[in-house]
TrEMBL record:
This protein's record includes keyword Thylakoid: no
Entry binding sites for GTP: 24-31, 77, 133-136
Originating species: Ceriporiopsis subvermispora (strain B)
Name of the featured protein: P-loop containing nucleoside triphosphate hydrolase protein
Molecular-function GO terms, alphabetical: GTP binding; GTPase activity; metal ion binding
NCBIfam families documented for this protein: small_GTP
SUPFAM superfamilies: P-loop containing nucleoside triphosphate hydrolases
Family to which the UniProt record says this protein belongs: Belongs to the small GTPase superfamily. Arf family.
Length: 219
């Protein structure tokens, strides 16, 4: 009887665990975001911004939501470290790409890297959220401006690669994904917009294609 009740209790309190990777160029604010998330959702606060150094490798953090655990992997964004990102693509349930909306000079570089991520077959069908960070700075581009800038960059890329055989179909697939892409504005520094981003992730991981695979494996 005890085992029956224990099993029933475990069933009722069971929490599904999902992995979310946080990527983007160095300096975009990924670690500041992860530490802000910890402060907002955990009893033990995350590091304050003055204690955060550039990431060499990865940082990890977990938060508990109703019947769900979100496990975050914040991956270093420096050029040499980006080559490890793909190792996380196969197992993650969602991808968060952080853009520094204040740094206009590096937007093009950011889109180039973002486009490389979108192209990756392993994340096709995985929920993807683009975050325009540093919205506390009045000089930052708004969500609307960030979206337009990316679309313009993409159109330009499409035009210049029309002549390359085979690339057009691939670009068309990406265009569809971009059309349904969600972009949200946040300030990792002040915490604005962060709860809305977590709500988005919470909903989207439950319906993620990879969740079906997970359930299938547990059967
Ligand atoms: N104004 C402002 N500054 C921010 C915000 N988020 C991060 N920063 C600053 O941006 C700089 C880089 O932040 P990090 O969190 O270290 O950036 P990162 O993306 O983790 O960088 P790597 O670890 O090198 O990939 C720091 O000086 C942060 O204080 C924000 O929302 N607003
Ligand atoms: Mg970092």
């Amino acid at each position: 009887m005890y085992h029956l009740l224990k099993g029933f209790h475990e069933y009722l309190t069971r929490k599904d665990e999902f992995s979310v990777i946080i990527i983007g160029l160095d300096g975009a604010g990924k670690t500041t975001l992860l530490e802000r998330i910890k402060t907002l959702y955990n009893d033990t606060p995350g590091l304050t911004p003055d204690k955060i150094a550039p990431t060499v490798g990865q940082n990890m953090g977990k938060i508990t939501l109703p019947s769900t655990i979100l496990q975050f992997w914040d991956l270093g964004g420096q050029r040499g470290i980006r080559s490890i990102w793909h190792r996380y693509f196969g197992d993650c349930h969602a991808v968060v790409f952080v853009i520094d909306a204040e740094d206009r000079e590096r937007l093009g570089e950011g889109w180039e890297v973002f486009d490389g991520v979108l192209k990756h077959p392993q994340i096709l069908g995985v929920p993807l959220l683009l975050l325009a960070n540093k919205q506390d700075n009045p000089r930052s581009l708004s969500v609307e401006e960030i979206r337009n800038d990316y679309e313009e960059w993409f159109r330009h890329k499409q035009d210049s690669s029309r002549r390359v055989y085979g690339e057009e179909i691939e670009l068309e697939q990406r265009r569809e994904r971009i059309a349904s892409l969600d972009v949200m504005g946040i300030s990792a520094l002040e915490g604005t917009g962060v709860r809305a981003a977590i709500d988005w992730l919470f909903i989207r991981v439950q319906n993620s294609k990879r969740r079906d695979e997970m359930d299938g494996n547990n059967r």
